Predict the structure.
Amino acid sequence: MKSDSSAPAEIAFGRETTLFLNPYSAQVLGEGSPGVRSFFRTVTDWHRWLGAKGDNRNVARAITGASNLGFLFLVISGFYLWWPRNWNLKAVRSVIWFRRGLPAKARDFNWHNTIGFWCAPALFLVVISAVVISYTWAGNLVYRIVGETPPVPRATQPATTGNNSAPAADALIKLDGAWFIAEQQVSDWRSISLQLPTSASAPLTFNIDRGSGGQPQKRGQLVLDRTTGAVTKWEPFSAYTRGRQLLYLTFHTHGRGRRDRGADDRGDRFSRRRFPCFHRIGSRIQTPLCVVRKTRITTRGSRNGNRERHSVTTCYTRLLSKRRR
């Protein structure tokens, strides 16, 4: 949910379905542009796994990882070959700017050097971040650069079956109060998202963002005890170690910080042209399920000036009843 009072609530069921709701009436407004979302999801699959599915993705991931290493070698070696023999204004200018009146081969060489020079910094950042994403040893190297010990990898969790069943009714108990606590944690929040747990005893994990979605330094994670509502963990970006901060910035440099939005985000943005009521929507919240908040605000066009957004439980229950029909 976004703090913007004119933005609809977003409820996502996995990566396949994202619904927009009116937070005041719980009316389903639409799904954005499923076609465009599907297109960019396919593009993303080709970018990451060469379009492979299932177990074949391991082979595709190895190919893309090796390609990233090869590309990194090209960027670094290209800069080495570009390095002028004589460091004077005339020599440097000839390899960093376009020259006129050159014969075909000399012109091509000049263009190659000039374009390569100005593209090299961006290419280096994109490729080096891709290597970090592709290989665990590269990610661990980020920690070692700042003198930290890489964290121990989490134990592999057993794969879950594709069950999109809704959480039990008791899983929604006390959810409204927990959402209110999350709102109070950061006064200037711009979006709050929650992955609704399927177990009534599981803690509630809120992702709170004070930025536009692409600023990891303005993000934080809040974990609440499901029974008591007590804050068990509040972890803003400033609480991370230097190695973890650098790793997150590396992910965002490559665009991996939006990895769970990816194609769907582009589809939602494109859909603004087709659905004017969504023109204030920002990027898609990256959680399997995002629910609305409960608050009283002043809105334009209302008779009494005050309208109340439905509670989390009310909106979610109404949405499930509509899907079952």
Observations:
- The chain has a mean pLDDT of 77.
- Residues 9-32+171-240+271-324 form one domain.
- The radius of gyration is 24 Å.
